[in-house]
Amino acid sequence: MGYFVEQLTIGLSTGAIYAIIAIGFNLVFGVMNVLNLAYGATMMVGTYGLLLVWFLGVRNFWLAAIGGIVAATLVGLIVERVAVRPMKGNWWNTKVATLGFAFFVENFVTRITEGRSEPFPKPFEIVYFPVVSDIEISNVQILLVVASLVLVAAMVAFLRKTKPGKAIRIIAQSPDIAECLGIDVHRITVLGFALSAALGGIAGILNALTFGSTYPYVGQFLGLKGLVVLIVAGIGNMRGCLYVGVVLGLLESLTVGFGGSTYRDLVAYGGMTLILLIRPYGLFGEEGRVAKEI
Amino acid sequence: MTGLRPTILRVTDLTVRYGQVIAASEISLHVARGEVVALLGPNGAGKTSVLRSIMGLVPPAMGKIEFFDGERTFRIEGKRPHLLAKLGIANVPAQQVVLPRMTVEENLEVGGLYLGFGHAAIRAAMEEMYRKFPALAQRRRNYAGVLSGGERRQLALARALVGRPKLMLLDEPSLGLAPMVLNDVFDMLRRISREDGVDILLVEQNVKKALDIADRAYVMRIGGMDFSGPSVEVARSESLKDAYLGS
């Protein structure tokens, strides 16, 4: 019983990270119809940005984390400028350009860090709180779950209530109508990329915090998982990302706990295939927005 | 008559092209204050391209477009649509006229939200639209995606009006509408022109309906301007038939 619950708590915190990754993906892909394959690389940049600030002498985790998020945001803005905007909405060109950008950044970081896995600083000493009998939950796990809930709620409120948030939703439905309503589509697209990259940076940092380390290709694995969550949830749906992210985290961790880590990715990719066979729009998706565009 | 009124829109020698394909060449037209002007012509004549080019959705290849906002005249060719919207030009396209994943209420609200109006002004304009278009009032909380064709058209018009435009560019308001609804929409257009003081440039396939409400009309043939004149004369002219039937 204790072992089962332990796996559940691990799964919950992994799932929380998946959810944050997926909502960042959702912002540019689901909401603005741009498939940014450099998104994973922005997460990785978030972790190395934090390390850079840390080793420059700022030995405060939170300040260094802000540095990492800023670095990720800047990279997101560069992606929009050099790999998305010049492609003028062409799907294939955008995919290839953003993927190329990701390879460039990942190999650049590999080159300067010699590709080693880097130990990651901690915001506080990890403390385990007993919940019931021998079941414990750590403060890092609490942080992860709270962070993902807050971020998803903030994202939903931003898109529903604020002027720029509504503008993002209008662009998703018709960039032409958006322009005719007085919205500067270029400016709002840049804002969307900045927000998405910031979320990616946060997710990367939280992930590195869980594993205690980071490496230059961490974004490939995280980015793909985010994409799976987004597709299963249904493109464009923020709350769906939260539910599916958490469930995927739980399923993965139970699979690892009881079946072995070999089967972990089978859950994500096999599950995605099965769900798409039954519901091509994803679990919470709208009719007509099929993942075939990927 | 029109000579005494200021010209709100003047298009001179406008050419629109998509790559090598010329969609419209050397189009000149104008709209005076208080006018409804129809742009007619068969399918493929380039009417929609002219409209989209005026709005900046397709940058013109050549030509001059001037807009008079009541105080100053602006050169607007090649300017981005969001800037034109702020000058007071509203565009209602032929297809995909509403934002389907937003409610009727939200659709109306965003008509003024990005044009610098305050919340109170937008609220007031929305209430006015609910009075003008009672069908929309009952549908406030519905997603626009579930509305009927006629309701969508009304919503698009109302959304444009919330932004208090000076000039409205309308592409085929009759498209996909049942005959009954069609009459309602054209009555509304006439009211918008008379009561709200919005000048209208209208592209339309339904020639009879368009000439009913328009003061003047321009007729295009494939890619170019054929002739123009007051609606009554255009309606009687033999060249109108020629333009559609070919000669």
Q: Which features would summarize this protein structure in a list?
A:
heterodimer, A: 294 residues, mainly alpha, ABC transporter involved in vitamin B12 uptake, BtuC, two-stranded antiparallel ribbon, 4 strands, 72% helix, 3% strand, B: 247 residues, alpha/beta, Rossmann fold, 2 domains, 6-stranded mixed beta sheet, 39% helix
Verbal overview:
The complex is a heterodimer of chains A (294) and B (247). Chain A is mainly α. Chain A has a single domain (2-278), classed as ABC transporter involved in vitamin B12 uptake, BtuC (Orthogonal Bundle). Helices cover 72% and strands 3% of the residues of chain A. Chain A has eleven helices and four strands, in the order H-H-H-H-E-E-E-H-H-H-H-E-H-H-H. Chain A has helices at residues 2-30, 39-55, 61-84, 91-113, 139-161, 163-173, 175-180, 185-211, 218-233, 238-258, 264-278, and strands at residues 118-119, 128-130, 136-138, 213-214. In chain A, the strands form two sheets. A two-stranded antiparallel sheet of chain A has the order 1-4. In chain A, strand 2 (128-130) and strand 3 form a beta hairpin. In chain A, helix 2 packs across helix 9 (218-233), helix 5 packs antiparallel against helix 8 and helix 9 (218-233) crosses helix 10 (238-258). The longest helix of chain A has 29 residues, at 2-30. Chain A is globular, with a radius of gyration of 19 Å. Mean pLDDT of chain A is 87; it is low at 290-294. Chain B has 247 residues and is α/β, with parallel strands linked by helices. Chain B folds into two domains: 1-88 and 165-247, 3-Layer(aba) Sandwich (Rossmann fold); 98-164, no CATH class. Chain B has ten helices and ten strands. Chain B has helices at residues 47-55, 81-87, 104-113, 119-132, 134-137, 149-162, 179-195, 207-213, 231-236, 238-245; strands at residues 7-18, 21-32, 36-40, 62-68, 73-75, 89-92, 167-171, 199-203, 216-221, 224-230. In chain B, the strands form two sheets. Chain B has a six-stranded mixed sheet, with helices on both faces. In chain B, strands 2-1-4-5 form a four-stranded antiparallel sheet, with helices on one face. In chain B, helix 3 (104-113) crosses helix 4, helix 3 packs parallel to helix 6 (149-162) and helix 4 runs antiparallel to helix 6. Chain B is globular, with a radius of gyration of 18 Å. The two termini of chain B are 33 Å apart. The relative contact order of chain B is 0.18. The mean pLDDT of chain B is 89. Chains A and B meet through helix 6 and helix 7 of A and helix 2 and helix 3 of B.
